[in-house]
């Protein structure tokens, strides 16, 4: 049986970044983005932003946002990863 995992809460993502000594705004700026740009990935799918945040947390984006990456149909697991950036 395949268990369904929930996406991390945005506050948990922010806290995990702070525990690593950074902030979402700082990570945005380090990535050449406006300080508020990465916040978009917390509320809507954005693969590029998800990859940046996940890399900072040493995770794969699907570990943080499983609903955006994994789909289950007829007990089969499918990738829901979007290919655009």
Short description:
The protein has six helices and two strands, in the order H-H-H-H-H-H-E-E. With 85 residues, it is mainly alpha-helical. It is elongated, with a radius of gyration of 13 Å.
Which tags fit this structure?
2 strands, 434 Repressor (Amino-terminal Domain), mainly alpha, 6 helices, 85 residues, elongated, two-stranded antiparallel ribbon
Q: At the fourth CATH level, what is the homologous superfamily? A: lambda repressor-like DNA-binding domains
Strand order of the largest sheet: 1-2
Please compute the radius of gyration using only Cα atoms: 13 Å
Count of discrete structural domains = 1
Q: Considering DSSP H and I runs of 4 or more, what fraction of the residues is helical?
A: 40-55%
Report the biggest beta sheet as strand number plus sense, adding barrel if it closes.
Answer: 2 strands, antiparallel
| Count of separate DSSP helical elements | 6
Name the poorly predicted regions: none
Form type: elongated
Strand content: 5-15%
Task: Tell me the series of helices and strands, N- to C-terminal.
Answer: HHHHHHEE
CATH top level is Mainly Alpha
Number of strands: 2
- The termini sit apart by 33 Å
The secondary-structure class comes to mainly alpha
Return the CATH architecture.
Orthogonal Bundle
């Amino acid at each position: 049986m395949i268990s369904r995992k929930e996406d991390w809460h945005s506050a948990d993502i922010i806290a995990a970044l702070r525990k690593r000594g950074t902030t979402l705004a700082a990570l945005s700026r380090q990535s050449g983005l406006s300080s508020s740009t990465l916040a978009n990935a917390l509320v809507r799918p954005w693969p590029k932003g998800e990859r940046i945040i996940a890399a900072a947390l040493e995770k794969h984006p699907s570990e943080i946002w499983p609903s955006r990456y994994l789909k289950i149909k007829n007990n089969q697991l499918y990738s829901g990863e979007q290919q655009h950036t």
